[in-house]
## 1
Amino acid sequence: MTPLLILDLDGTLAKLSHRTAVAGDEPPRDDKAAYQRWLDLLQPPGALLSDPPIEQTVWLARTLRDQCNMVYLTGRAEMHRADTLLWMQRHGLPEAPLIMRRNDDYRTAAEYKEEELINLKKYFVGPVLVVDDDAAGDCSPMYVRHGALHLKVVGE
């Protein structure tokens, strides 16, 4: 069985500390207006293209590409697809499906990624390895609950 490798982007493949310093602390998601204002500060047009890569996880993606079924699963909204794909190409990331959230999806990372993980497991049989920074700390228990091995990226 071929393993499924799921890679997150922000905080995992791309450094975003320079953007989080500008945006400040994440507000509660149930206040959609405040949350959207925060997202607009975190991800202004073109800002994602300036993210430096996290070389260790970029190397991991390149190294494991031929041994795994690979997908990118990001909490970035669909409106950032073009910039995200361009950033990935610039930094030599292997081609693989890119799953992004709907523009109006304000669920937590764990809620969103759990739904996507369940969908992916319908199409891929085998062990699941997830590489994710899990900044909020809610994804790792969910990944484990679904039988995935979670490698947590810390200290970007």
## 2
Amino acid sequence: MAKVVICPICGRSFETSKPNKKYCSFTCKEAGNKLRRMVWRNTHPHYDAAYMKKYRAERKEIKENEH
């Protein structure tokens, strides 16, 4: 049983028999993944590499001062 889905990237409608298919093509899928990663990074700034490097250095200094 096929259902009609609208691609969130390009807006084109397409038929699919798979219940979890979101994108009409591989290109749109890649664009959707890139967008999803960008949104995640913007909503989780504490996972930034520079922030984590600074955090680990601070934690190391605290541990060294405890002993």
